[in-house]
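Sample intake sheet
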Amino acid sequence: MAFACSNGDGNRVTVTFPSMITHATVTIARALVGLLVAALGVGLSASGARAEKVRPELFGMDMVQLTIPPAPLVSTPTMRLIVRWSGVERSPGQYDWAELDDRLAMARQHGSRPLLTLYSTPDFYAMGDVGDVVEVRPPKLSAYRAFVSALARRYGDRADYQLWAEMNVSNNYVGTVRHMAKMAKIASQEVRQYAPGALVVAPQGPIRLPGSRAWFERFWTQKVGGKPIAKWVDVATLSGFPLPRHGPEQGIRLVKVLRRITSAGGFDGPIWVVEINYDVLGRKPTVPISIEEQVANVVKTYVLNASIGTQRVYWHYWAPPVPNMNTAMLSPDNQIAPPGKAFGEIQPWLIGTRARGCTITRNGDFYSCLFTIKRAERRVMWSVSGRERRVAVPDRTRRLSFPDGTVRRLDAPKRVRVGAMPVMIESWGKRAESTRTR
């Protein structure tokens, strides 16, 4: 198989691969991929010698609303549900689980694995400066232990547990890094005792600015009870929002930043993006973009994260357009919008495949991300700038799939045009070849 692409200077670079994907040829192909990446300038690939299969749980929805969603959900293998502690425990030791029970029932109805994220300290447990908003003040550790214990005993292995939301954002938490580290130990002890099949998930937050990253670096170097944070949690997380005006291609770098931070703390477990959308800067209004650009944001987010081995990505969130983020899953009248439809349509593209990485032109404009499943090769391709390129599809290409659900079947080799909207090119059989672009 051959892959040819511009090197950004107007010249073409071609690398030829063996046509059959076997154990022997994968070793050769990896070496050639290294040459290709050097020629093209940039590459993304999953960590580890052997890429894990993309699981359904990659596709998550961050259900921040505390009510049942305003429109039917598309396939959502996992949901993030906010647990407002002060709304459950309105007086010491007295719990009202009704609302949370309903939301977990909704998740089960959709076949979704819930991630329960705590926040909002009850006023009678709040510590710290009385001038701060009560719910963002750190809780008394004994009270936090009692609540996490009650939560884990009630829902057990039916959910995973995130110990707090956005630990480095003053709208959610104003305590110290040290206090949050102690909360991690407590959450770990209680969840592992009462829900041993569940995952203990570290708190997330944005890391796009130096100050935010520094908070994470301090957290991941903490030791509590003689053990590093890496021993108390099963999953590392982040809020994946890139800087304003930056899209998925820039945002994916934040996952790599978190991997470097957590690795320095001795953690080599999975990373989840538990909030993602674009052009988000607090409550400041965003610059509207076209529906096509919104669809592309959704597709590229999941393809790029799958390509580097991110296990779960929770889209923020299942709702009509809001002023401070540019991609909405629902229309203003609460119907499923094209980005929401694309969220469901692309799941069969990726689930069950193994990520083989992305190749990117030196100028960063053209992406080709390869996934394999049995004897099939699936390539998701797009142009960042929107400039169309003619792609010569492999001889045994069977179909082209688009994020709106359209499928084009090909009976003979052809060239297809690839622009800003990602397209999935699927090739079958031992003679499957790489694509070439012009």
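Comment: Residues 23-40 form the longest helix (18 residues). Residues 70 and 334 are 6 Å apart (CA to CA).
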